[in-house]
Amino acid sequence: MSLTMALVSPAQGADGGASEEVAARRRGRTGVGLLLPGAIYLVAFFAVPVLALLATSLYAPVPGGDVGQYLPALRWENYAAALGKFWPELLRSFWFALLATVAALVVGYPVAYVIAVRARGHRLLQGVLLVLVVAPFFTSFILRTIAWKQVLADDAFVVASLRWLHVLPDDGRLTATAFAVVAGLAYNFLPFMILPVYASLERLDVRMIEAGGDLYAGPFTTFRTVTLPLSMPGVVSGTLLTFIPAAGDYVSASLLGNPTTTTMIGQVIDSRFFRVLDYPTAAALSVVLMVVIALLVTAYVRRTGTEDLL
Amino acid sequence: MTAAPALELWGVRKEFGGQVAVDGVDLEVPEGSFFALLGPSGCGKTTTLRMVAGLEQPTAGAVSIGGRDVTGTPAHRRPVNTVFQSYALFPHLSVLQNVEFGLRRQRVPDARARALAGLQTVRLAHLADRRPAQLSGGQQQRIALARAIVNNPSVLLLDEPLGALDLALRRAMQLELKRIQAEAGLTFVHVTHDQEEAMTMADTVAVMNAGRIEQLGPPAELYELPRTPFVATFLGRSNLVAGTVVEGSGGVLGVEVAGARLQVPADRSAVSDGPVLLGVRPEKVRLSAQGEPPPSGSNVLGPGTVTDVSFTGVSTAYQVDLGALGVHEVFAQNTTGAPTSRPGDTVHLAWDVDFTFGLVPDAAAAS
Ligand SMILES: Nc1ncnc2c1ncn2[C@@H]1O[C@H](COP(=O)(O)OP(=O)(O)OP(=O)(O)O)[C@@H](O)[C@H]1O
Ligand SMILES: [Mg+2]
């Protein structure tokens, strides 16, 4: 909309030259034409499904009908019922996603820093390191999570070493724990953290770091007052790209967790839809998940002052 | 005057992977002086400055600030501040926060008030809330200056701070810098490749070439008595001729130049026998028409042919072709209302023996 207006406005400023107006209108039409494929795609694959989801979340069971038979309705109680029953899984999802995001940031920021700042000028080294960062994408998400299951298994070396170091008690284990789920989430979304942080550190002018040192800031203070603030856009996009998919993830929790204390909302939605055939509850939970994420993201972006990203 | 020099360098050397950028520099910058480091691009000025700031570690030698050896001290513990060639203002902070930055790191109690006072010094207090990106180049330059001087450093390092400005702004900023230096009583080390800038601003100029200091002294002294062919041609212009010392008596050396006999005061010559390069500044030279007897105590070269006359109003520049001795320049003040010679005229060049200087010939002087 704004694009078309911008394209048309120059002609409005001119004193009504007919040919100019025609040209402007043609340019306006070109703009609309260029937007059309994207617009159609969004309507078909985003707007329609979201509306369908909203509608489904308000369906009512067919009176006396079979399991999985519903009628269009405006049954708002679906939301109260879904939240009343599944609020622990919903909260746990956000909690796990938060932990995984923090873990990915703590691990990913230094990696991005080394690639973008320390390896600057060594193009080959930078290239190799970046390929290593994205290398996990060459294998499927599920395979990698299954591999993690092996790594964290009771008889694998990680648990053995941790027991030996007395970090874990002798009967302690990692599989089927919250730790395993969060670690799996952090691992799976790590590249989504590293790449945006790398992109913003890559643009960082090292003379800024030197200027910090020149103005009496030690290495840590320079990091806190100069480097980190200047890489904030990357940190914000990285945390969003990690947090949002992690909150809705169900692969890590189902493969690395246990059925009682690590269930995430994605698993609930999955089983409501495909096993219990309770479509309205699944849809209501999906809507809640979307709305809460949208609210959290907006608040977060406002706080960090990086509105330009949205 | 008895206090230790603000800055001393002893045999400071810097190599980058075997390539020598700074080749054994010795310097002494007195407290409160305006010191200029002048040299062509790539001669090692920035590298020298960075070693003083602590942003680069010398391969050999020592740096001392206010009598304290700081060679191994990291940048943030050195009492120096830099105005960077590219300003390097923090884009995420306001102008005021930029200026306050160093004061806050040092936990100065009235940081805000002092930062505002610093902005007043550079006359930009009204821009305190802007971001650096919203300022013009000249304004950014002044903010970078304010950000450095508010910390009252023992030495303020300026790396071609006026390089990016247009000529008029450059001149204005040169005066402004001198005013601020005088008011604050700080020691300035100013890097530039503009010889006019170095001469108008500094008390002491060090001329640097290929990683070495060629000569160091007050601007007038460097100009009147250059000691190397590089200084003679980089700092102002010079007419140079190669000759051989043939006699020396009474404090004056006699030099044979292409059949002619010239003289140079012995204390103005770096050579007392053998090959010598004689020089004189173009504005010291007079043109004398053929047959006109030269005043006594003059060196005379010629005859030659005037090949070009450019009248600039204040003065006239003549190019005179002396054949085997090459083309020489003469600047004449416009005291008579019009140029006195025209292209094609046959003339002699004459100048006072006392303005002559003698240099060690080197490969570079051949051109
Ligand atoms: N980090 C570096 N790595 C390798 N060589 C360098 C480095 N920094 C400077 N040099 C080299 O050292 C020499 C001196 O550089 P320097 O930047 O000190 O010159 P400068 O006198 O400041 O020049 P300019 O007037 O162009 O700024 C140059 O030949 C340069 O290529
Ligand atoms: Mg430089």
Observed structural traits:
heterodimer, A: 310 residues, mainly alpha, MetI-like fold, two-stranded antiparallel sheet, 13 helices, 2 strands, 74% helix, disordered N terminus, B: 367 residues, alpha+beta, Rossmann fold, OB fold (Dihydrolipoamide Acetyltransferase, E2P), 2 domains, six-stranded mixed sheet, five-stranded antiparallel sheet, 8 helices, 22% helix, transport (chain B), ABC transporter ATP-binding protein (chain B), Mo/tungstate-bd_C_term_dom (chain B)
Summarize the helices and strands and which ones pair or pack.
The complex is a heterodimer of chains A (310) and B (367).
Chain A: H1 2-13, H2 18-57, E1 60-61, E2 70-71, H3 77-118, H4 123-134, H5 141-151, H6 157-164, H7 178-202, H8 206-214, H9 219-230, H10 232-248, H11 251-256, H12 265-274, H13 279-304
Antiparallel strand pairs in A: 1-2
Helix pairs in contact in A: 1-2, 2-13, 3-7, 3-10, 3-13, 7-10, 8-9, 10-13, 12-13
Chain B: E1 7-16, E2 19-29, E3 34-38, H1 45-53, E4 60-65, E5 68-69, E6 80-83, H2 95-105, H3 111-121, H4 137-149, E7 155-159, H5 167-184, E8 188-192, H6 195-201, E9 204-209, E10 212-217, H7 219-224, H8 229-234, E11 239-249, E12 252-257, E13 260-265, E14 274-280, E15 286-289, E16 298-311, E17 315-321, E18 327-333, E19 346-352, E20 357-359
Parallel strand pairs in B: 3-8, 3-9, 6-7, 7-8
Antiparallel strand pairs in B: 1-2, 1-4, 4-5, 9-10, 11-12, 11-14, 12-13, 14-20, 15-19, 16-17, 16-19, 17-18
The structure holds adenosine-5'-triphosphate (ATP) and magnesium ion (MG).
Adenosine-5'-triphosphate (ATP) is lined by residues 16, 21, 39, 41-47, 193 of chain B.
